[in-house]
């Protein structure tokens, strides 16, 4: 029996991805190539690891046992490799970081030069996704996620939290007046999120609760797009401090309804899969970013 680490990686990736096509994206192979590799592994073991239909895959009893051992073996190999890297004190290799475009632009990009100077052998790949991305499908090592986490298969590390402010440009307020209560918002142009309803629940205290639902006049998938619209005087917006701090300081955006703020702070986490060892390059990046935040 000639099973190698590539066999184990292929098998684990197929299970974690859920489909052969998703696994092929992560592995950089064709779907047929991944299927053949899986069949070769089953031939080597002389047993079926998966039952496959056109719609789904399920582990056999032998497959479940083999998966547990395969994870342990690969984990030990990665840990041994990382131990050598730590001894050399030269974290190296590809590191793919995904974050919503506002966080990427305002909290990551400004510090990239310093990070590269500290860790020149780490090859950064930065991607922006304004919707929650599948880490395996997008070949992502770390995803920065803003708001509540729901996926229990992920490790999560709290990085910081950011208050939300209701804002408008001075020009908009001059033309349309300044709301004095949350109810006044109904008479204004509101900027909100599409396909992200929590972003349209503004943290404003009123007689019936601590969130004020809004119906946007203009919707966008990206907070950065909404920021630019607010700067252009197109309406009132509710955005995080991390992306509007400079605008507020410069007077380009003005806080309104401050007396009604609930003090809510949006949580920001870095997430990664439980079944991977925390590589040194990931640890370096998280320690660096947390210091900056």
Automatic annotation (TrEMBL):
One of its GO terms (molecular function) is DNA-binding transcription factor activity. Residues 1-60 form the HTH lysR-type domain. GO terms for biological process: DNA-templated transcription. PROSITE patterns: HTH_LYSR (PS50931). Signal peptide: none annotated. Keywords: DNA-binding, Transcription, Transcription regulation. InterPro entries: LysR-type_TF_proteobact-type, LysR_HTH_N, LysR_subst-bd, WH-like_DNA-bd_sf, WH_DNA-bd_sf. Pfam families: HTH_1, LysR_substrate. The keyword DNA-binding applies. Belongs to the LysR transcriptional regulatory family. This is LysR family transcriptional regulator.
